[in-house]
C-alpha cells in the first residue's frame, strides 16, 4: 500500500515538473520570474506537496533555482542548452544504435521494418499523431534491441528534460523522417555499428536545429533577436 502511494506521489510530481518545463521552454514564464505554487497546483490538479517535489526535481535539472525564503525562480534557457541536451542524446542514442546493429534479432528487425512502413503510411495519409507515435516506436525498438537497459534509462533521463510536445514536433518532420529512418534501418540490416551510430547521432543533432527554429518562431529568445 505504501509503495502504491509513493508511486502515485512520484507520478504527480513528474506531472508538475513536465507542466512547468513546458511553461519555461515555451516562454510563458521568463528567466528571473518567481513561480507561485498555488496556480501550478490548480493547473495540474494536485496539492502543494507534489508541486514542491516537482519543482525541487526541476531545480536539480537547472531549469529553476530555489532562493532561500523567497521560493523558486526561473533560470535562463539558452540555445546552447538545447544543443547540449541533444548532444548528450546523440551520444547515448548513437551508442544504443551501434549496439543494436550487433544484437538485433530477426524478429526485432522485422518489427522495426513494420514500424517504418506504418510511419511511411501515416506520412502519406498526413496523420501527424500516428507519424509521431510510430516515430517514437521506431526509436524504442532500437533501444530495446541494444539490450542495454541501464544505458537506455540514462537516455530517458535526458529525453524527459524537454516536454513531450516538442518531441512531437521533431518526430513530425515528415521529410527528414522519410530519408533518415530508412537509412538507419538499412545500417541495422547490414549489422554496421559504425554506420548506425553515425546516422543516429546526426538524426538527433539535426533535431536540435529544428527545435531551436521552432522555439525562435514562438519568441522564446526575443531579447536575443532584438540585441542582434
UniProtKB/TrEMBL annotation:
HTH gntR-type domain residues: 10-77
Keywords linked to the UniProt accession: DNA-binding, Transcription, Transcription regulation
Signal peptide boundaries: none
PROSITE patterns linked to this entry: HTH_GNTR
PANTHER family per UniProt: GLUCONATE OPERON TRANSCRIPTIONAL REPRESSOR, TRANSCRIPTIONAL REGULATOR, GNTR FAMILY
Protein's recorded name: GntR family transcriptional regulator
Source organism of this protein record: Streptomyces siamensis
Amino acid at each position: 500500500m505504501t509503495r502504491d502511494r509513493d508511486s502515485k506521489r512520484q507520478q504527480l510530481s513528474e506531472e508538475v515538473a513536465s507542466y512547468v518545463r513546458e511553461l519555461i521552454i515555451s516562454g510563458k514564464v521568463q528567466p528571473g520570474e518567481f513561480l507561485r505554487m498555488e496556480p501550478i497546483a490548480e493547473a495540474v490538479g494536485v496539492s502543494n506537496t507534489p508541486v514542491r517535489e516537482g519543482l525541487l526535481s526541476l531545480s536539480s535539472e537547472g531549469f529553476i533555482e530555489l532562493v532561500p525564503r523567497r521560493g523558486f525562480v526561473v533560470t535562463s534557457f539558452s540555445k546552447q542548452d538545447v544543443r547540449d541536451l541533444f548532444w548528450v542524446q546523440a551520444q547515448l542514442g548513437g551508442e544504443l544504435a551501434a549496439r543494436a546493429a550487433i544484437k538485433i534479432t530477426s524478429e526485432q528487425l522485422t518489427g522495426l521494418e513494420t514500424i517504418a512502413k506504418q510511419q511511411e503510411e501515416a506520412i502519406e495519409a498526413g496523420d501527424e499523431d500516428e507519424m509521431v507515435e510510430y516515430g517514437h516506436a521506431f526509436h524504442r525498438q532500437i533501444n530495446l534491441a541494444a539490450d542495454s537497459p541501464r544505458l537506455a534509462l540514462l537516455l530517458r533521463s535526458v529525453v524527459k528534460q524537454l516536454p513531450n510536445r516538442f518531441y512531437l514536433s521533431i518526430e513530425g518532420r515528415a521529410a527528414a523522417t522519410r530519408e533518415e529512418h530508412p537509412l538507419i534501418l538499412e545500417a541495422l540490416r547490414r549489422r554496421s555499428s559504425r554506420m548506425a551510430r553515425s546516422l543516429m547521432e546526426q538524426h538527433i543533432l539535426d533535431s536540435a536545429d529544428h527545435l531551436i527554429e521552432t522555439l525562435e518562431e514562438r519568441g522564446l529568445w526575443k531579447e536575443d533577436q532584438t540585441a542582434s
